[in-house]
């Protein structure tokens, strides 16, 4: 069945619904944390794949709240949520071309359990595999990130993203030097020789090391940051606060809303894994379910390059310094 194009009016309506839903769901996260802070409620934490892959009753409750609201308003849309997926048997990529809500009721669950403020609701609306609408609400900071096609990407619906836009700065001429590099340790903590965790560590050290170091791989980035929430990492890249985000291992609900917002802001998202020929390989749009993501902030032109050229140059400079990560995903 062909997927009909959505009109701008339909997109605007879905966006307004998503913003309201994101705020209401975020309020539920905040109420839960306030009960804990006031000593009225204890937190129950269950482990999923391992001791750092955790779920709380709040994740479950807020997912049901979001799912019910979406199914009532848009019964023909498909729904994929982290906790519903976790209960199913399949670990395949299940999204097809039909309009689909891809949501994480609580991204940054570890942060949430530690009352580290970087946690949020993340609502992505996808058509034809492309994240079109994104809403991320981080209630502790009262930060709402949102985007709708042709309407821009916004912080709290007031401040257009990226934050610096008069003009939008190009990527630094010697990127990744002078960049803030964001990355995550993730949940694969198997300490095996040349495993994903060791490859990440090697990549992180390459990006941090001084420019002459590591056999020419030293990136001398300005700083390394991990928010502990993939979708907030992407939102911060859309702001332009992060220049680069590199990550392997998270899932489509961790990135769908963030990718929509970053693309609408003018960012670029491709694969984390370096191709064989980093100098000439085409820089393709990321596959949503690939679990391998490299994001570059919005960039404006310089005297010698377009913004896109400076983003692509940065992609190749990152690929030169990072290791290939192993995440296979049927259907992605
Ligand atoms: C996790 C966060 C984290 C990323 C993990 C995700 P969760 O999501 O986004 O930053 O490194 O891969 O699974 O479990 O907090 O929703
Ligand atoms: Ca989650």
Automatic annotation (TrEMBL):
<keyword id="KW-0479">Metal-binding</keyword>
<comment type="pathway">
    <text>Polyol metabolism; myo-inositol biosynthesis; myo-inositol from D-glucose 6-phosphate: step 2/2.</text>
</comment>
<feature type="binding site">
    <location>
        <position position="104"/>
    </location>
    <ligand>
        <name>Mg(2+)</name>
    </ligand>
</feature>
<dbReference type="InterPro" id="IPR033942">
    <property type="entry name" value="IMPase"/>
</dbReference>
<comment type="similarity">
    <text>Belongs to the inositol monophosphatase superfamily.</text>
</comment>
<dbReference type="Pfam" id="PF00459">
    <property type="entry name" value="Inositol_P"/>
</dbReference>
<dbReference type="GO" id="GO:0006020">
    <property type="term" value="P:inositol metabolic process"/>
</dbReference>
<feature type="binding site">
    <location>
        <position position="106"/>
    </location>
    <ligand>
        <name>Mg(2+)</name>
    </ligand>
</feature>
<dbReference type="GO" id="GO:0046854">
    <property type="term" value="P:phosphatidylinositol phosphate biosynthetic process"/>
</dbReference>
<dbReference type="GO" id="GO:0008934">
    <property type="term" value="F:inositol monophosphate 1-phosphatase activity"/>
</dbReference>
<keyword id="KW-0672">Quinate metabolism</keyword>
<dbReference type="GO" id="GO:0046872">
    <property type="term" value="F:metal ion binding"/>
</dbReference>
<dbReference type="InterPro" id="IPR000760">
    <property type="entry name" value="Inositol_monophosphatase-like"/>
</dbReference>
<dbReference type="InterPro" id="IPR020583">
    <property type="entry name" value="Inositol_monoP_metal-BS"/>
</dbReference>
<feature type="binding site">
    <location>
        <position position="254"/>
    </location>
    <ligand>
        <name>Mg(2+)</name>
    </ligand>
</feature>
<feature type="binding site">
    <location>
        <position position="107"/>
    </location>
    <ligand>
        <name>Mg(2+)</name>
    </ligand>
</feature>
<feature type="binding site">
    <location>
        <position position="82"/>
    </location>
    <ligand>
        <name>Mg(2+)</name>
    </ligand>
</feature>
<dbReference type="GO" id="GO:0007165">
    <property type="term" value="P:signal transduction"/>
</dbReference>
<keyword id="KW-0378">Hydrolase</keyword>
<keyword id="KW-0460">Magnesium</keyword>
<protein>
    <recommendedName>
        <fullName>Inositol-1-monophosphatase</fullName>
        <ecNumber>3.1.3.25</ecNumber>
    </recommendedName>
</protein>
<dbReference type="InterPro" id="IPR020550">
    <property type="entry name" value="Inositol_monophosphatase_CS"/>
</dbReference>
């Amino acid at each position: 069945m062909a997927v009909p194009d959505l009109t701008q009016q339909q997109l605007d309506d879905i966006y307004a619904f998503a913003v309201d839903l994101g705020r209401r769901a975020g309020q539920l996260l905040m109420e839960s944390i306030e009960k804990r802070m006031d000593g009225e409620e204890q937190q129950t934490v269950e482990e999923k794949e391992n001791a750092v892959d955790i779920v709380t009753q709040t994740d479950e409750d807020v997912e049901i709240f979001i799912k019910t609201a979406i199914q009532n308003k848009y019964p023909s849309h498909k729904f994929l949520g982290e906790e519903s997926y976790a209960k199913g048997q399949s670990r395949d990529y299940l999204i097809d071309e039909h309009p689909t809500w891809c949501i994480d009721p609580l991204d940054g669950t570890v942060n949430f359990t530690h009352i580290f403020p970087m946690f949020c609701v993340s609502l992505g609306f996808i058509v034809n595999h492309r994240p079109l609408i994104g809403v991320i609400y981080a209630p502790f900071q009262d930060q709402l990130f949102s985007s709708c096609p042709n309407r821009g990407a916004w912080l709290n619906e007031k401040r257009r993203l990226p934050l610096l836009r008069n003009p939008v700065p190009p990527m630094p001429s010697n990127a990744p030097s002078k960049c803030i590099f964001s990355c995550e340790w993730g949940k694969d903590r198997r300490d095996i020789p040349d495993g994903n965790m060791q490859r990440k560590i090697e990549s992180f050290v390459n990006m941090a090391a001084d420019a002459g170091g590591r056999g020419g791989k030293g990136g001398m980035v300005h700083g390394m940051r991990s928010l502990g929430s993939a979708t907030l990492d992407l939102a911060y890249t859309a702001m332009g606060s992060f220049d680069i985000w590199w990550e392997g291992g998270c899932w489509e609900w961790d990135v769908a809303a963030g990718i929509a917002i970053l693309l609408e802001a003018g960012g670029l998202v491709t694969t984390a894994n370096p191709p064989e020929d980093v100098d000439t390989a085409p820089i393709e749009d990321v596959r949503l379910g690939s679990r391998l993501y490299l994001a570059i902030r919005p960039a404006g032109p310089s005297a010698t390059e377009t913004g896109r050229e400076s983003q692509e140059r940065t992609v190749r400079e990152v690929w030169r310094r990072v290791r290939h990560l192993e995440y296979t995903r049927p259907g992605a």
